[in-house]
Amino acid sequence: MIKKIIYFFPVQLLLVHLKKNQFLLMFWFLYFLIITRSIAVKYGIPYLFIAPEYLGKTGFWSYFIMGFSLGGFTMAFHISSYIMNSHRFPFIATLKNPFFRYTVNNSIIPFAFILVYIYEVVMYYYNTPEFNIWQILKYIAAFIIGFNVFILIAFSYFITRNKNLFGLFNLAPASEEESIEPVSMTLHKKTHWYDFFKRERKWYVRSYFDLPFKIKLARKVSHYDKDMLVKVFKQNHLNASLFELAIVVSLILLGLFRDYPFVQIPAAASLTLLFTMFIMLNSAFHSWLRGWTVTVFIVVVLIINYLSQFPQFNYANKIYGLNYNEVPQKYSNDIIEKIKSDTLSYAEDWLQTLEILEKWKSKNTSATGEKPKMVMLNVSGGGSRSALWVMRVLQMADSLTNGNFMPCTQLISGSSGGMIGAAYYRELYRKKQMGEPVDLNSREYLDNIAKDLLNPITFSIATNDFFIRLKKFTFKNQVYTRDRGYEFERQLSVNLQAFDTTTLGFYKPYEKKAIIPMMVFSPTILNDGRRLLLSSVGVSYLMNNFPKTNVKNKPTLESIEARKLFVNQNIDDLKFTSVIRMSATFPYIMPTPELPTQPILNIVDAGMRDNYGYLISHQFIMVFKNWLNKNTSGIIIVQIRDKEKIRKIKEDVRLKKILESISTPIGSVYENLFRIQDYSQDELIQSLSYWYEGNVDILNFELSFDENQPISLSWHLTPKERQQIITGVDLPQNKRAFERLKKLFEKN
Q1: Which of 347, 372, 453, 537 sees the fewest Cβ atoms within 10 Å?
Q2: 178-185 — which CB contacts under 8 Å span 24+ positions?
Q3: pLDDT of 557-578, one tens digit each?
């Protein structure tokens, strides 16, 4: 009985995959880990598969496309397996439609995955208040239909193109008695369970599965000419390779139409297409190169790596609006020292901001002449969850203070998604100040900022960024290559119905007149770890690190203001969405921008240095301490966080496993990065008592969630996550913070 199971064709295929095709199994293993929520839960990757979104909603078509893409991946798996393994099982060359029967027997893993996927979808919706069995059945049906549509398309090609031994050579099929090896011979062969580990080419098969639900004995092929069998497989492999290349080319061409919303498929489907192309290209090369595949692949990678250093072969991601045609700005320690010693620019920016502060004061001073309180807003990074959370908190703050929160706010700083939410709210506030009919508390704006940004990014990765980037666009007379950075900015403008042509300089007159708060972005320079300060008005004083007379030290600049570095690059023409993107450049998901400098500077997320934006606020208070002491009655620092500030300490960090001993030290440093920032910044906050005489109130608004079911750190939120964020203002700690805010404004 055991031998019957071991030498059953599906089992033999599973064993050959384990021994020979680990590359193929790696993708399936990754898929199983994702959908069972064993990995990447923090980034919301499982929910991209379990609850896909298409054209702004989860429904029949999103699951249909998910099924269709997985059908493509499954066929790629079958084709690749057939190309690499069919010669090990020569009996299939004698079967009608060899490839079809091969895939039927090669379906243990795909079938298991589909069952697990359906289970996870059911459990996901079962645990929601909107649980509806008919809706779930509709989603599952859509997935299965989409899956089978691709399978049928593929089989319609292979059934008409592929031939078996008898069809290719016009031979008469052998009778069952002649072709089937006697059972007695099979059962009396002296084999052991461990023999399959030693096999290299011949894999014995006793029986195979056939439709409709039959188990048949394998044909004996020893009496057939070996060259004839090889020709059958070559003919089948050629058809498979042509099919794969056609699919790859079709997907690349599909990327040319990504401007149309209906083409932007769910993010999980795009990732599946990307994996599909990897498998197809691998198997196509394997069918041509055989044993040379790995060697040629390594050589190609080395050649591409070498060519990428030349401009004509390098698709650099640029910041839109910045002039790249001028001679690149030199960036060196000497240049930094020169910028540092430019006290004239420092004085000009200081005086300009002093005028802004006076306008802020006149706007906020009460009729009785009582000094106003100044609000400084710090917002944390955290993708779409942080963007939505910041919007929600600002709406509540505006409502509870009777519209006085934004007029009292002078400075906004932070990183990533939080700055998107703050920038959007500030833009809506500006429009209202200009007389446009804007209801700052409208639910519409929450829905806008919660819309998906990930679908166009992943679709661009799958169909464009890994291949030839054909499409370009023009902004401010500069020509740029379109990539996922462009898709992010375009989709952000579409979702928010804002920032489409807005530049950094657009906000300068509004900030100078104190109509809207100043906003300072601080992305991180990857080359040396400094912060790059970007603002609509000059803020070179935030770089201030001049030596004091009683401190004998030669301090270095911790940050560089972009206006002082890019004097000839038209900094005011810098697209505002590009400024946002620089502050929200999460590695790999977003491209790393390159600045027009020598050497080239690369920019990453602001959160790497200052996730909460407090460093900007602290330096601002230090620089203007005399004015603040004289003209304000207090400072309110509002920190909007996408996580709780005080988090649970890990109970056990002992290194129990070898893999943990390798990953834990580095992983823990990254995991505690923002905690470390909090520790340092709390020390700075406490030191304000030396510089400021009034009260400093720190208000924390924290998004709290279960660590076992976190809200995704992603550019995509599920409907359940959106609702969880919106209702986060009702948490006890946030209610207390809002009550404090209300009382502070009552005294203002």
Answers
A1: 347
A2: 178/220, 179/94, 179/219, 179/220, 180/217, 180/218, 180/219, 180/220, 181/217, 181/218, 181/220, 183/217
A3: 899 999 999 998 999 999 999 9
